[in-house]
Design a protein that fits this description.
2 copies of one chain form a homodimer.
Chain A lengths: L3 H24 L6 H8 L3 H7 L3 H24 L4 H18 L1 H10 L8 H24 L9 H22 L5 H16 L2
Chain B binds a DNA duplex through helix 1 and helix 3.
Chain lengths: 197, 197
DNA sequence: GTTTTTATACTGACTAGTCAGTTCGGAATT
DNA sequence: AATTCCGAACTGACTAGTCAGTATAAAAAC
């Protein structure tokens, strides 16, 4: 499994992911060509098709990979924490993630609300997995009375997810000169205020 | 000015705008072909190029048109109101707008944070105009002490703009069965809580 | 009030170019 | 020896933009 060959191949796939993420975040899926992706990854075009069935499949696996990481970080962040603190930890984890994988976040934001695309179903599913972690936390908070009882769990969870994404990416794109810690503070402030019973 | 010819032409342009908005909202700018737009508008492809210089220019004029409407509604909404009420009026105006032009809102959300696109500069400028109205209101509120003094005007304004957009579109795409009034209420609730000094 | 002219609006086949995906012999890596 | 990658040529479907020609309002001439 981790012999030289598989490692080498994993490395190529990783380089293709990185190249694809950067380009698609900038230009969108359709405007990004497979030739571009191969060139930026420093790889021949044939290699792309040796490693991935198609451009669409490459993108889908990319989404799976990226959101999988995010979901894992969400799970790790809330582990064992009481609801209110878990909520803060989620915001921090999301921003930490966006800071690290800004291009992927930008890509997510741009492709998340699309309809009528081949991979839309995949994206919807993955989004659900990430939000489920948030929803569990919110539900626990509402059940235990630490969060307002009138809070609608599903709405609040997806709103939280989307708002973190939009505020952080907005900052990165339109005010990149500012430290992202400020986003974190103001977002935490907002969430805390809203979470007050 | 309003003879048969100009009216007919205006009508054609309007139909092209509507067709383009719907398709681009669903598929994105690059994935939408000029043939598609023409077909949906019930017009020959040549007509698109008779009325607009290029696909990009059509899109830019569409953005100008759409955001111009939004900015005008913002201006009308805050007119003469004291800061706190003006803030609520802005939220309501934005949601009212999104309810009416949902495809345009979806399109905005998807294309807003792109970089390296020909029309990116235009979009950035237009976004600035809309946010300026929000910023004026927030600034007046901070100056008069009705809003927290530690509120950063620029950040708060763009956050408000983005959050309204993302929450509303998220709702439209992922929970369209719910009445949008509920979004308005919960958004207003959030803004009110955050605005508390 | 009818006919002729003109300007405007539209048409759709056509061109020139692009891009996803294929193919495959050979080179490099393990 | 087997796997992985290279690279370059090729195909076929698709797409932005063009342009010569048509239709039709309104204005001009009769």
């Amino acid at each position: 499994m981790t012999d030289g060959r598989t490692r080498r191949r994993e490395d190529t796939r990783q380089r293709l992911f990185v190249a694809a993420v950067d380009l698609i975040a900038e230009q969108g899926f359709s405007a990004t060509t497979v030739d571009d992706i191969a060139a930026r990854a420093g790889v021949a075009k044939g290699t792309v098709y040796y490693n991935f069935e198609s451009k669409t499949v490459l993108f889908e696996e990319l989404l799976r990979h990226g959101i999988g990481l995010l979901t894992a970080e969400f799970r790790a962040a809330v582990d064992g924490l009481p609801p209110l603190e878990a909520l803060g930890a989620l915001v921090r984890a999301q921003l930490e993630y966006i800071r690290r994988y800004r291009a992927f976040a930008q890509l997510l934001l741009s492709e998340m609300w699309r309809t009528n695309r081949e991979w839309q179903q995949t994206l919807r599913l993955l989004r659900g997995e990430a939000i489920a972690v948030i929803a569990e936390t919110v539900k626990a908070g509402v059940d235990s009375g630490e969060l307002p009882a009138d809070l609608d769990v599903r709405t609040a969870s997806s709103a939280l997810f989307g708002v973190g994404l939009v505020v952080a990416v907005d900052w990165l794109v339109f005010s990149p000169e500012r430290p992202i810690d400020e986003v974190q503070e103001s977002l935490l402030g907002i969430v805390r205020r809203v979470a007050r019973t």
